[in-house]
């Protein structure tokens, strides 16, 4: 681990070897149903896709590689099915993939997954890690930041612009009501925000090429971990429920648009007391 | 060993507390009372003068580190300082806001000190001395109860979902000398939009969608201004380039829970609901009587938003 020194390319920039942390999640159009155990969801009929924020990460990694030279490696913890999402990222232009597939990983919480990813990165040289700010299934916002902590590298979250110069990365990060610009030395990690880029679609030649790109499948033992070292989960889902169903309410009728507007304002003011 | 406390982390920007600070303190006080322990709050990068008032929101001790290097939030400096304070104060619970700052900070602290963290909590209970929180998953399509096990236990609470309650705390201010330690990240600059109400903190949001038909959101802006609210947008309005991405409400945008959400010309895709379904009152204005938004809105008006919204503006002005 540490700063991987690769020769400069023709333009004199240092090449960047980039890792993208990728998770496969239910597509955001999915209707989510609670499974019979009451603490997980039914996944049988759900379309699984690359987490949308990780898609921005794949795109940004490819763009940085195109500008600076280097490589893009996709790293994921997942199941057999996750291979499809890794192949999609390879078809977009990433160079290789690593999937950690182990039933012991399935009981991990965010910190456990972060330890697995950090352990997998011990043997892969990198200058930069890019990840989604959150996965849109658990919405935990934790794994990527924890990976940075375990690797003892700086991280910047929710980035809409990233530039590499002289071994440093300068990131524009979105905050409430504005944008903050920060700079960190490489190796570093940043997480994506919508607005960073518009991910490309995989081209047909890209899809053909992806089939031949290296994709390693590893167990926890292969990366020198076991379930115990990944850590006992400290957070546990005890129940899942649906949010209170919003009933279709009242359609406000009236003889004119004027009457409808007046009726609405009266209700909001006198009954709901929200204006 | 000294008695454990609930440790709340205040959030300031330009030496003023953000609204989330009061929500964190109010919820922290409630948790401290259920455990039967004191509430300590940490203020980084701001002065004792503004910190005193936190006693009125239930803080027993107010630890102030008015260090120049902490004026602006930078995650490595803040993590170093807060991890040191946690080590010294030995809290049983750490509570902070799940703001952009708190999300990053809490995740880094949890990994540093190996503590369980629940993100974006909308409810927090104490059961047998441990936290059990409720938090949305799958973009709000599911609410999960999550039990935490560890010491301390960290809860990052979702902005705008806890009520602010005044409560008398001892309010003792203590000045801290802190060491920011080894840091890699340099703060360069910030660009803030002045006078804009932040979507995640707004009490009222007026949102526009495809039905606006262009980048002229003046009618939406006028209604939002009148109600001291914020302007939101659907994904299609953002994708069309009519509004900045920072205005997007939805599963891949901001999740909001205002008192009043007025959706204008928004049909109501499932991803949009995920971002606003916890609003207290939802109003929909849409030309299409079959728009899915009407099945979720408390009140709907079928009609042309460009006719209806100005009339609503006139009616509200009449109230004032």
Automatic annotation (TrEMBL), chain B:
Please give the biological process terms from Gene Ontology that the record holds: fatty acid beta-oxidation using acyl-CoA dehydrogenase
According to the UniProt entry, its GO molecular function terms are: electron transfer activity; flavin adenine dinucleotide binding
Question: So which cofactors does this thing need?
Answer: FAD
PANTHER family from the xrefs?
Answer: ELECTRON TRANSFER FLAVOPROTEIN ALPHA, ELECTRON TRANSFER FLAVOPROTEIN SUBUNIT ALPHA, MITOCHONDRIAL
Task: Identify the SUPFAM superfamilies for this entry.
Answer: Adenine nucleotide alpha hydrolases-like, DHS-like NAD/FAD-binding domain
Family affiliation: Belongs to the ETF alpha-subunit/FixB family.
Q: Which residues bind FAD?
A: 210, 234-235, 248-252, 265-272, 286
What is the cofactor note? Binds 1 FAD per dimer.
* Name the record gives this protein: Electron transfer flavoprotein subunit alpha
Q: Which SMART domains match?
A: ETF
Please report a single Pfam family linked to this protein. Answer: ETF_alpha
Task: Kindly state which keywords UniProt assigns to this record, in alphabetical order.
Answer: Electron transport, FAD, Flavoprotein, Transport
Per the UniProt record, the source organism is Candidatus Desulfaltia bathyphila
Q: Where is the Electron transfer flavoprotein alpha/beta-subunit N-terminal domain?
A: 6-189
Q: Which InterPro entries match?
A: DHS-like_NAD/FAD-binding_dom (IPR029035), ETF_a/b_N (IPR014730), ETF_a/FixB (IPR001308), ETF_alpha_N (IPR033947), ETF_asu_C (IPR014731), ETF_asu_C_CS (IPR018206), Rossmann-like_a/b/a_fold (IPR014729)
What job does this protein perform?
The electron transfer flavoprotein serves as a specific electron acceptor for other dehydrogenases. It transfers the electrons to the main respiratory chain via ETF-ubiquinone oxidoreductase (ETF dehydrogenase).
Phylogenetic lineage: Bacteria, Pseudomonadati, Thermodesulfobacteriota, Desulfobacteria, Desulfobacterales
What Gene3D superfamilies does the database record attribute to this sequence?
HUPs, TPP-binding domain
């Amino acid at each position: 681990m540490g700063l991987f020194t690769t020769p400069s390319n023709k333009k004199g920039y240092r090449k960047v070897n980039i890792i993208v942390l990728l998770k496969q999640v239910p597509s955001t159009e999915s209707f989510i149903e609670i499974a019979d155990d009451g603490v997980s969801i039914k996944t049988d009929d759900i379309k699984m896709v690359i987490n949308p924020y990780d898609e921005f990460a794949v795109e940004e990694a490819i763009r940085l590689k195109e500008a600076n030279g280097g490589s893009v490696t996709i790293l994921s913890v997942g199941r057999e099915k996750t291979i499809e999402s890794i192949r999609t990222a390879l078809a977009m232009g990433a160079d290789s993939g690593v999937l950690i597939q182990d039933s012991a990983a399935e009981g991990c919480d965010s910190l456990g997954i972060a330890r697995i990813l950090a352990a997998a990165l011990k043997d892969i040289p990198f200058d930069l890690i890019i990840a989604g700010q959150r996965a849109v299934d658990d919405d935990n916002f934790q794994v990527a930041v924890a990976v940075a902590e375990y690797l003892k590298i700086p991280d910047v979250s929710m980035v809409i612009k990233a530039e590499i110069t002289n071994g440093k990365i300068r990131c524009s990060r979105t905050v409430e009501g504005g944008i903050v610009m920060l700079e960190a030395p490489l190796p570093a990690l940043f997480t994506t925000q919508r607005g960073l880029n518009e991910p490309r679609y995989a081209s047909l030649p890209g899809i053909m090429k992806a089939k031949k790109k290296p994709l390693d499948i590893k167990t926890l033992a292969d990366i020198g971990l076991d379930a115990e070292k990944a850590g006992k989960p400290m957070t546990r889902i005890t129940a899942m429920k649906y949010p209170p169903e919003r009933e279709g309410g009242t359609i406000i009728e009236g003889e004119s648009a004027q009457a409808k507007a007046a009726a609405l304002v009266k209700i909001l003011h006198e009954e709901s007391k929200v204006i | 060993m000294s008695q454990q406390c609930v440790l709340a982390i205040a959030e300031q920007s330009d030496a003023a507390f953000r609204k989330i600070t009061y929500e964190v303190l109010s919820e922290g006080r409630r948790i401290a009372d259920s455990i039967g322990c004191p509430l300590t709050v940490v203020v980084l990068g701001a002065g004792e003068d503004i910190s005193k008032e936190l006693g009125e929101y239930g803080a027993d001790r107010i630890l102030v580190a008015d260090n120049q290097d902490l004026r602006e939030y930078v995650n490595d400096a803040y993590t170093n300082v807060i991890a040191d304070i946690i080590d010294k104060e030995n809290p049983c619970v750490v509570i902070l806001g799940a703001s952009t700052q708190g999300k990053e900070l809490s995740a880094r602290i949890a990994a540093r000190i190996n503590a369980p963290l629940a993100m974006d909590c909308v409810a927090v209970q104490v059961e047998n001395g441990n936290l059990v929180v409720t938090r949305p998953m799958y973009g709000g399509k599911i609410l999960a109860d999550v039990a935490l096990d560890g010491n301390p236990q960290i809860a990052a609470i979702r902005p705008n979902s806890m009520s602010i309650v005044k409560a008398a705390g001892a309010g003792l201010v203590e000045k801290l000398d802190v060491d920011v330690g080894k840091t890699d990240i340099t703060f360069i600059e910030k660009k803030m939009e002045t006078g804009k109400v932040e979507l995640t903190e707004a009490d009222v949001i007026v949102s526009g969608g495809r039905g606006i038909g262009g980048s002229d959101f003046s009618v939406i802006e006028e209604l939002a201004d009148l109600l001291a609210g914020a302007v939101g947008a659907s994904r299609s309005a953002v994708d069309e380039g009519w509004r900045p991405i920072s205005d997007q409400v939805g599963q891949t945008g901001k999740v909001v829970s205002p008192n009043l959400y007025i959706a204008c010309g928004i049909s109501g895709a499932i991803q949009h609901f995920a971002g606003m379904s916890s609003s207290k009152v939802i109003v929909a204005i849409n030309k299409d009587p079959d728009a899915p938004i009407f099945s979720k809105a408390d009140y709907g008006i079928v009609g042309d938003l460009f006719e209806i919204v100005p009339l609503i503006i006139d009616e509200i002005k009449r109230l004032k």
